[in-house]
Amino acid sequence: MPELPEVEVTRRGFADSARDARVLALRLGKPLRWPLGRDPDAFVGERLGLAERRGKYIWLPVGAGGLLLHLGMSGSLTWSDPAEALPAMGTHDHFELQTDRGSLRLNDPRRFGAVVWAPALDRPPAANLLAGLGIEPFDAGFTGTYLHAALRGRRVAIKQALLAGDVVVGAGNIYACEALFLAGIDPRARSGRLSRPRSERLALVLRQVLARALEVGGSTLRDFSDAHGVAGAFQNEMHVYGREGQPCLRCATPIRRVVQGQRSTFFCPSCQKR
DNA sequence: CATAGCTCCTGACCGC
DNA sequence: TGCGGTCAGGAGCTAT
Q1: How many Å does it take to go from CA A219 to C1' C5?
Q2: Where are the alpha helices (DSSP H) in chain A?
Q3: A49 closest CA partner among A68, A37, A63
């Protein structure tokens, strides 16, 4: 599942190559989450800017506007150089941007992903989709103090608060579970009850786990690969995610799985406290 | 405002 | 081997 590390790894994989490229054609496959919102032919001749990331979204400037892309849960973007023979669009290829410098293609079996045109990042529909997103975990403002204050008054479990993305962006199911394990916090703990020191600890380990995943190319459980088709390796370093029943790597207690908000949560009942 | 539930989609997996 | 049922999951949307 593409979370912040996977999205950022993807962005880095094509941003420089795509910058300043001229659009030759835009092709669409099956519908994604929302319609593109603009005539595909209108992109032809326009120039790409430098792709940036906000949360799990990628903003790719095109002409005077841009495309907001999301990988959903099974999407991957690949960049191929113009020299490479471009394979025909496959069943799960739903978007392709051909340029004079290469092609960007979105493959997404589940089609929870999105590619939406907006006249600017701060105008609809991009602005609507980004509204309400929390702080970037690598922003200097993301501190224990911030986290503690942002969670104040909340009754939802800390795991769900992390997933919601309105406090801090970037963590999906994998990294939320891993960060809580590393912080020694029970995922079912009420978010508003998190102490200052534990908030501090959580902010720190969340940044650390995301940074580590970024370093090793993200996590590849099934579909994910970077802009050059390379799989990530963080799945080999997971402590709790997907490890139900297996011994905790720290204390050997069997890892437990519970469901929170229709989502699986994995944790060590011994290492993680409320 | 905060929260819970529903929804999109399809490959993988399970039991018969 | 084939088939139906169930599950997973990001996040917007609706309802409470």
Answers
A1: 29
A2: 4-18, 126-130, 144-151, 158-164, 173-183, 196-215
A3: A63
| Confidence class for position A263, pLDDT limits 50, 70, 90 | confident
What's the CA–C1' distance between A30 and C2, in Å?
28
**Segment A69-87, tens digit of pLDDT:** 999 888 899 999 886 777 7
Q: Is A263 a catalytic residue?
A: yes
How far in angstroms lies nucleotide B2's C1' from the CA of residue A191? 13
A143 CA vs C5 C1’ separation (Å): 46
Count of alpha carbons within 13 angstroms of residue A87, beta-carbon side: 11
Task: Classify residue A153 by burial, with Cβ atoms within 10 Å: 0-12, 13-18, 19+.
Answer: exposed
Q: Is A269 a catalytic site residue?
A: no
Q: Kindly report, residue by residue over A179-219, the tens digit of the pLDDT.
A: 999 999 999 999 999 999 999 999 999 999 999 998 887 77
Inter-CA distances, A235 with A6, A57, A99, A228, Å: 12, 22, 34, 19
pTM value is 0.93
Q: Which nucleotides of C are covered by protein (CB under 7 A)?
A: 7-13
Structure tokens at A43: 């992109």
Mean pLDDT to the nearest integer, A137-151: 93
**CB within 7 A of strand C (chain A, 147-186):** 163, 165, 172-174
Which nucleotides on strand B sit less than 7 A from a protein beta carbon? 2-12
